[in-house]
Specification:
Distance between the termini of chain C: 74 Å
Shape of chain A: globular
Largest sheet of chain C: 3 strands, mixed
Shape of chain C: elongated
Structural class of chain A: mainly alpha
Distance between the termini of chain A: 54 Å
Number of helices of chain A: 6
Number of strands of chain C: 8
Strand content of chain C: 5-15%
Chains: A mainly alpha (169), B mainly alpha (408), C alpha+beta (203)
Structural class of chain C: alpha+beta
Radius of gyration of chain A: 21 Å
Largest sheet of chain A: none
Strand content of chain A: under 5%
CATH class of the domain at 1-72 in chain A: Mainly Alpha
Order of helices and strands of chain C: HEHEEEEHEEHEHH
CATH architecture of the domain at 1-72 in chain A: Up-down Bundle
Radius of gyration of chain C: 26 Å
Number of helices of chain C: 6
Oligomer: heterotrimer
Helix content of chain A: over 70%
Number of strands of chain A: 0
CATH topology of the domain at 1-72 in chain A: Four Helix Bundle (Hemerythrin (Met), subunit A)
Helix content of chain C: 25-40%
Largest interface: A-B, 25 and 35 residues
């Protein structure tokens, strides 16, 4: 089962990197996210799975696709990659491998408690209480971070003082 | 406490009509060996939901055309069968025998996948709605989240259809669908959050249970009858209109501008699937609205409890669907900039303020005595009406009432 | 306040919806095959040929095959062949008649110019609109027999116009008779050269 789920996550992700069509890549990425949601569901994290679908498959995918559609795509770029591009790709793979190695090492080095019997069934209510109680600090930090990011986006997108505002209805 | 119901001898939990669907289910699953009964039960629920809502879809298309006709002073379809009742059948035969055309330049796989994904996702949303006292296909702890997750993914299928058709109108429709989804997902979810907050649960059965009971036996404890609930219901309703691509927010398939939007390159059965998915989405959202704000399957008065709960659910559902059609017959379509402006500058702030109103309502739940109760209501009403008026004035600032020089 | 316009609009459509069940003013649709429309008197679509006697339409066509309408017709949808012999018309005078008279209604543009130019009031505009056919070539090409309709029919569809036409035709016929009588009288009185000719009535 876990192998099937891994395939469902990894194959679309790999295909997304290899496709030359950006929209195909984006949709495959969405499929990979959906596979991740299926993995959460399999491991008993119902809430996280639905949140994953809602946020990633539902909303983030929209933003990605919107960005792809708004980017001018040059049909002449379908030419085979030249030497410089190969070099860049190689560097990217190296970087990814390095990051992956670091993360993998971190995971392997962490002493995780061995799963003892059935996993605990956590209701949404308990989850909320945990988040608001023990992890309130980290929640606040993440909230502040997101707000700052949002404000930054607004500042970037805001019209220049001299610029004419958008048309009235 | 409400007085004892008139039909006190009749325990609604045990009434025959109330239990009839359960008895049918038990009979059918009893035909299978015990090891397969869980599977049979689930499959039965799936089959019943698909068949029931497919036939409801057929009737809704007819009802919509009839109601729109009446609104425009004409009878609507009335030639096929008595009073036009066989019109859905004729439509089905027509769409089934039509040629299925796929443009040569289209992305064949995505073009085929889009309607399939759309219908399956739209159907998934029906799984968690409580149709009656004992009628919940799937009991989920995070049912509300599941529902909106399934609903949010449908716009992805609309985008797939629009992009894969390789048609400029379809692509424009896909862009509009994306913009619309990003804009209206937020107020939709924000309008639901107060309900979840006050009910203290994400499960649909829990939310319906939180609306049980009556004051004096006639005034139900539905969320829509509280200040924050009324505001939340209106916000939810407007956002649901936009989410289900219904008029006046039907920009993705604006037929006067974009031919048929993302449906332009679809024909025959695939077109019918899209149509079906649109109605499924609309029905599911209305069902969610009934569950969240209109008390779900609860009867409006204590003495009306003898009518089975699923009848109440579907009565409310049909009422909401009727309002959808009524609005379609009334309002002209918005422009895309008006659409997004309305969402971000009006609905989102109102939904956020409504969250505060609901929090106040929850915190003041302990206030007793007529004076404090009155104060509670007045403060909550002010919290709802004040921002609405102010934001409405801002939204329509600089837009004078339109004057017509040459028309009467 | 924001939203008041929406409520007003919803009220209008709700009134229409409810009114369509009991108020005839809000339910204006006439269902065609069951309820035949009351066409205005001056409505027109395609031409027909007027015959004085409905019982013998081919013998009493007013048309004398002068071919003016054929020449004037802008889309040239009229085709006429003159007869080889002559038949007496309503006034008893020997006239040619159309051996073939065909109008292609798929070409006709309902301009009524044929009616305007006809000196014999022989072609008029019809009101038949349910002319759909499964054969778009021969089904829409109307021949002499299909085109001929009685004067009573003309009265039934355009009463005012038909009465005027009848009065004019009667006056012309009377004038022609007077002229003939005067000519006969003049011939009888030929030996008396001083007799002045009678005043001519305006045609």
């Amino acid at each position: 089962m876990i192998l099937l789920l891994a395939l469902l996550i990894l194959v679309p992700a790999a295909a997304a990197m290899l496709r030359r069509n950006l929209v195909h890549s984006a949709l495959l990425l969405v499929l990979s996210w959906a596979g991740l949601a299926a993995f959460y569901l399999w491991s008993g994290a119902e809430f996280v799975a639905f949140a994953q679908v809602l946020v990633y498959v539902g909303a983030v995918s929209m933003v990605v696709l919107f960005a792809v559609l708004l980017t001018r795509q040059n049909p002449d770029r379908a030419a085979p990659p030249d030497a410089a591009a190969r070099l860049r790709a190689g560097a990217a793979v190296l970087t990814a491998a390095a990051v992956g190695a670091v993360i993998g090492h971190a995971i392997l080095a962490t002493p995780l408690p061995a799963a003892a019997g059935a996993p605990p069934v956590l209701t949404v209510r308990q989850l909320g209480l945990e988040l608001m109680g023990r992890h309130a600090g980290s929640l606040l930090v993440i909230g502040a971070l997101l707000t700052v990011a949002l404000l930054g986006a607004v500042v970037l997108a805001a019209a220049e003082p001299g610029e004419k505002p958008g048309g009235k209805p | 406490m409400p007085p004892a119901p008139i039909f006190a001898t009749l325990d609604p939990d045990r009434a025959f009509l109330e239990r009839a669907p359960l008895l049918v289910r038990d009979f059918v699953t009893g035909l299978f060996p015990p090891s397969l009964q869980w599977l049979a039960g689930n499959l039965l629920a799936v089959v019943v939901i698909v068949l029931f809502f497919a036939s409801l879809f057929a009737l809704l298309t007819l009802a919509e055309r009839k109601i729109l006709g009446r609104i425009q002073n004409r009878p609507g379809p009335n030639r096929t069968g008595p009073a036009g009742l066989l019109q859905p059948l004729a439509d089905a035969v027509k769409t089934l025998v039509k040629e299925d055309i796929v443009p040569r330049a289209a992305d064949q796989v995505l073009h085929f996948l889009a309607p399939v994904v759309l219908v399956s996702l739209a159907l998934m949303a029906f799984a968690v709605l409580p149709y009656g006292r004992h009628l919940v296909p799937v009991e989920l702890d995070a049912a509300v989240l599941y529902f909106f997750a399934a609903g949010a993914a449908t716009e992805l299928a609309v985008f797939m259809a629009g992009w894969a058709s390789r048609n400029k109108y379809s692509l424009l429709a896909a862009m509009r669908a994306l913009a619309q989804l990003i804009s209206y997902e937020l107020p939709l979810l924000l309008s639901v959050v107060p309900v979840v907050m006050l009910a203290g649960t994400l499960s649909t059965t829990g939310i319906v249970a939180a609306q049980a009971g009556w004051t004096y036996g006639v005034i139900p404890h539905w969320h829509v009858l509280t200040p924050w609930g009324a505001a939340g219901f209106l916000l939810f309703f407007v956002s649901a209109l936009a989410e289900s691509n219904r008029s006046p927010f039907d920009l993705p398939e604006a037929e006067s501008e974009l031919i048929a939007g993302h449906l332009t390159e679809y024909s025959g059965f695939k077109y019918a699937l899209f149509f079906m998915a649109e109605y499924f989405g609309m029905t599911a959202l209305c069902g969610m609205g009934v569950t969240l704000f209109l008390g779900g399957w609860q009867a409006p008065c204590a003495f009306l409890e003898f009518i089975p709960s699923y009848a109440w659910f579907f009565a409310k559902l049909l009422l909401l669907l009727g309002v959808f059609m009524w609005i379609r017959g009334t309002l002209p379509r918005l422009r895309i900039d008006q659409l997004t402006r309305f969402a971000w500058k009006f609905l989102v702030p109102l939904a956020l303020i409504n969250l505060g109103t609901a929090a106040f309502w929850q915190l003041s739940a302990g206030w007793s005595g007529p004076a404090l109760q009155l104060a509670r209501w007045l403060v909550a009403l002010a919290l709802v009406a004040g921002p609405f008026t102010l934001l409405g004035r801002r939204l329509s600032a600089g837009v004078a009432p339109r004057t017509y020089r040459y028309a009467a | 306040m924001l939203g008041s316009g929406i409520i007003k609009g919803l009220a209008v459509t709700a009134k229409n919806l409810a009114g369509s069940f009991h108020d005839p003013a809000r339910y204006v649709t006439q269902e065609f095959p069951e309820v035949q429309p009351q066409l205005p008197e001056n409505s027109r679509n395609f031409p027909f040929l007027v015959a004085d006697d409905g019982a013998d339409p081919m013998g009493t066509l007013r048309c004398v095959a002068c071919q003016i309408c054929e020449k004037e017709c802008p889309p040239q949808c009229i085709y006429i062949e003159k007869s080889k012999d002559k038949k007496p018309d309503a006034a008893g005078k020997l006239q040619l008649y159309p051996a073939v008279f065909a109008i292609d209604t798929s070409v006709c543009m309902s301009c009524q110019i044929c009616v305007e130019v006809c000196p014999f009031d022989a072609i008029k505009m019809d009101q038949v609109f349910a002319i759909a056919t499964t054969d778009r070539f021969n089904g829409l090409l109307l021949n002499r027999e299909q085109l001929a309709k009685s004067n009573q029919y003309y009265h039934s569809i355009h009463p005012t116009e038909a009465t005027e036409v009848d009065a004019r035709l009667a006056a012309e016929r009377k004038a022609a008779e007077e002229k003939a009588r005067a000519a006969a009288a003049a011939k009888a009185a030929a030996p008396k050269p001083a007799a002045p000719p009678p005043p001519q009535p305006p045609a």
